[in-house]
What does this fold into?
Amino acid sequence: MILKKVLSLFSKNQQIWAKIIFWGTGLVATIWFLARVIPKPSRATYPCQRAAFPVASTFVIALLGVSEVLASRFPRLAKMKMSKLLLTLIITTVVVVSTYEYGSSATGLFINKPAWIPTDSVNSPMGEAKGIFPGRVTWMRDSTATKWNAEFGEGHWWDDKFTDQAKVDVMTTKNLLALTGATTATEAWDKIFIFHNKSHNKGKTGFQKGQKIALKINCNNAYEGYGDVDNQIDASKQTVLAMLRQLVNEAGIEQKDILVYEAVRVIPDHIYKPCQKEFPNVKWMDSKGDSVNGRLPVVWRNNTLHYSGTTKCGTSIPQLVYEADYLINMSLVKGHPSVGITLTAKNHYGSINQREHSFKANTYHPYVDLIGSKDLGGKTVLFILDGLYGLRDVNDPVTREFAGWNNLFGGDWLSSIFMSLDPLAIDAVGYDFLRAEFGDRLGRGRGAPTDIYMHEAALANNPPSGTIYKPDGVQLKSLGVHEHWNNPKQKQYTRNLKKNGKGIELYLVK
It folds into this structure.
């Protein structure tokens, strides 16, 4: 009976109800869209915002039309030009933000710039290769490890049902064996520490009890704090947990001597909690740590880094990183709108108190000092690229539209982990993969020439810029080897092409 009366009332006032629904829905959609997108523009890519945008834009356009009619009928309302201007600015903001986010998607509608072309020819190595097997970069790909279908509402890419922990563990172990020529993970770690100490004039010794090691991870997109669940890319809990299992169970390092850190961002709960549950005595440190939330606060050691040229980069690093004997650099494979790419070199922007994002070709580059510094790159025993889910740009969500790897793997994820003992070789490989996959869309097409620092660091003793790199008072020698592969299909470097090659070896792990 009640339902019948409601339907009768609605049928008699359909136009009124239609207007109420239109204006009410439009107002809510506009408020919702602006409240979510203005603080973080990348949210415009979320399905809920995509659904809200057409409703919101229609509402704003209609509102502008109403204001025009009212102003023409009631001259006094013509004075309300500021209100109209405000509305115009709102809709312009919405359109610009949406064009920026939607148009720069995989369709490439917004970006029409040519793909980046390296200044050096293919298979033209420069610098001196480093490693037990000089210049080796191991690469293992397992497409069954990454099952995320990018449908929002069904969970998150890091959920165990979408990213397989057991398979990530296997990928980690096999990479270590291939990198060192060892038959067990324990032997691999011993080889890594002995190689590092020997090459840094510390004798033929391995890890000693009581020594400390820091693991630098990348959580650049954890803007929403410890509860961050926005499906943007950060370190995966699977790769972090796999590495902790290696350090504790295989390398034999005590939990209390391990530090996992991200000095200028937070480490969200979806990484911290499962890792802390299995390894409760491992130390964690991030920008909002207070000891109560399980993360230690960052205590900066001032005036520690010294740069060889003019830069805005900070000179302070965390005290706990300064005190560490060793460091592992575990970065991501992704583009960046200012510097083109984020790989292991830029990962240390999460180790210093201030950063710079403006570089030009054949000029001084602060990355070289970070790689060459005794307190950062000089302590690094292993370089890792977590490439389970590759990204066109740091601000993109993990969806196939933005990160589908359509060129290299037929629409499948990168599903890869890379390792090396050479800081430049691994970044050169990561860059080639990114460049081949995303072309002119990498980093939204606005990146500076991206391999400048690789050239400078490879030729640190005589760099193109003429800079005398001496972050610790003595001029640096070559920090590693750099080259570009022959083509995206074969993916071969000089050591793949000939036995006496002097460049990179991309070692496919199976």
Summary: Confidence is low (pLDDT under 50) at residues 95-114. The CA atoms of residues 382 and 428 lie 16 Å apart. The chain has 16 helices and 13 strands. Residues 2-103 form one domain.
